[in-house]
Known about the structure:
Layout (H helix, E strand, L loop, with lengths): L4 H12 L30 E5 L32 H8 L6 H6 L4 H8 L5 H14 L6 E5 L8 H5 L3 H10 L3 E3 L8 H10 L3 E3 L13
Parallel strand pairs: 1-2, 2-3, 3-4
Amino acid sequence: MALTRREFIxxxxxxxxxxxxGTGHASKTSxxxxxxxxxxxxxxxARILHITDTHGNLLPNHFREPNVNLGFGSTFGQxxxxxxxxxxxxxxxxxxxxxxxxxxxxxxxxxxxxYGKTGGFGQIKTVLExxxxxxxxxxxxLTLDGGDTxxxxxxxxxxxxxxxxxxxxxxxxxxxxxxxxxxxxENEVLSNVALFKxxxxxxxxxxxxxxxxx
Length: 214
């Protein structure tokens, strides 16, 4: 199963620019209109869906992509360590488009005013449900979360991540790994993992006494 570059960019855009619809700011002439934004080509008989690094942001917000991302060694100057106009040219995205706003820092203030906020768990769920339906049902999909989800907001701090565990369950995440999830206390991490309805996987997770935050 393989996607062309055009198909890949469309899939990437559907996920990254999810919050651009339903905000009252999206351009009516954009390829990312409500009626066609989630029309992703079906290839094969299964679909792997992936989210990551939501950092407790339940609601849409204004997110600016970095203007510097160099990479190192063999990855220097290679995707995903490419930003701005160079990135747009490399992936074939038109400057000033919703995709350009989602993927780069270019003209951020002007495009933020034009297209509105991005992201949000309600919007992410809409994308996931649409992609699951397009795959023939949830039974044909596997939803992965790369972590940095249960930490990063005021409510996640106050609930010690429990609110985000519930939100993750509502998204229907099947498998996830942890990153900043481990900044909570050991008993809190174990409680969150028990509350999570999917599989929380990790290997060789260790903590030294001098690394504990209390």
